[in-house]
Structures are given as C-alpha cells and as structure tokens.
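Supplementary Text 2. Reproducibility record for the structural model of the 261-residue chain.

All settings were left at their defaults, and a single model was retained for analysis rather than an ensemble. We include the record here because the model underlies the residue-level annotations in Supplementary Table 4.
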Amino acid sequence: MHKALKSIRLLAGGVILLMASACNGVFDDIYDTPSNATNVMQGQLFVNATSWKDWYYVDFDSLQQYVERKDTAGLQRAQTVFTAYPIPTTGASSDGKTGLYSYWFDVFGEGISKYERRGYTPTGAQPEPASWSLAFHRNNVRTNGGAVLETRYTSLDELPKNSSEFTGAVFTGDEWSESEVWADQSQMLSGIIGCQGITINKVLSSWLRINIPPMPPQFTLNSHVFIVRLKNGKYAAVQLKNYMDTSGTKCWLTINYKYPY
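Retained model, structure tokens:
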C-alpha cells in the first residue's frame, strides 16, 4: 500500500513538472534578441510568451513608424524584443475584483474544465505601456479597448483587399476572466493555481488552446486569420503561425500581421 501511494505521488509530481514546464522558456534575458528570431520577416512578431508572471505588449502604430522610416534593424528588434510587465501580486484593488484568484482544477480527474474557486487576493492593476494594441501572456491575448472577429481565411494573402468588407460583422470585445490567466504555480501539487483577474479577448485567445487531459497537455493551434478593430478605428489582421521556437519550446508565438488593414 505504501509503495503504491509513493508511486502515485511520484507520478503526480512528474505530471505537475510537465505542466509547469509546458510553457516555460529557455531564454532568460528578455532584452537580447533570441538567436532563433533572426529569420523573422517584416509583418511578423516573434514573442516569448512562456512566462506565467508577465504580459508582453505590441503597438502596431510604433511598428508602422519603423516601416515608414525604412529602419529595418529597428523593426526587427521591435518585432522580436518585448519588455516584460509583471502581473501584480500586491497592492490595493480599486474596483474590488482586480487581483489573484485561487482555483482548484481537477487535473487528475475530469480535467481543467472542472474547477472551483478557493480564494481571492486583491492586487494593484496590471501595468501597461502608454500606447499598445495587443498584449500576450502564454495562450492569453488582450486588446486595448479593441474587438476581434475570427475569419474563415487561413492566410493573410486570402483576405479581401479592404477591411471594409467586414463592415457589419460582429466583433467581440474583451471579457472579464478569473480562471484563464494562470499566474501562480506555487500550489500546483494540490491542483490549485493562482489566476489573474483581468479582461482578455476570448475570441483571439482561441488561436491557441491548452487541453488537460491528456497529459502532458495537448496544444491545439487555430490558424485562422483574425481581424482586430482597434479603439482608434483602424484595423489589423493577425494570424498565429506557430507556438513553438526552433527547439520545440511551447508558447513562443510566431504571429503574422498586416497593419494597417
């Protein structure tokens, strides 16, 4: 009986390690351009979104300025190097709901579709740059007051010439989430995960699904092109091309984009 329990604990520990490493990066210095990003082309982003603790932001207008100045080196760096904005763990919640939520997930049973809220800790608001269009955290995406439409196209080249073709289509804005932005692994051995309470765009976030079971987690890529209507009225087209780097580390996002569209 004792040997069986020990085996179960060892198996559970191994599974948790697999979960914890599933989206962990191998590059520690976020300020150096990763070596496997040298082939990133104009109209592509290469984002290390492996961190559980950080968000990364892109501003399409800033990228376009590099294009207009014909600053190829600056554009390459802006498409591959992103500053980490940590998820707050302390501070006061001004709205009574911003903070970290503890959720138990039935990882070893029915999977992460079964979960229960176990606690809440208020924190300060998520920091962000003065100007941004999209933010990335593992498989989560936010917009800055924008809205998103999933299209049937699987290539930017297939898109209609003008975004006016989508006039009248239903775009979806960001929605509040308390259980999808996994931020704290400290109690994972008990199936409890700390999640950030924050708005995310669930339509755009659907471009990468992490499913448990099975174990190790199964990643599903949705290669459709998404149209983002920014709060300034402009449009961008984005497509998740890949979610791994050249070494196979998951949550390295290669994103094709067209802006302005």
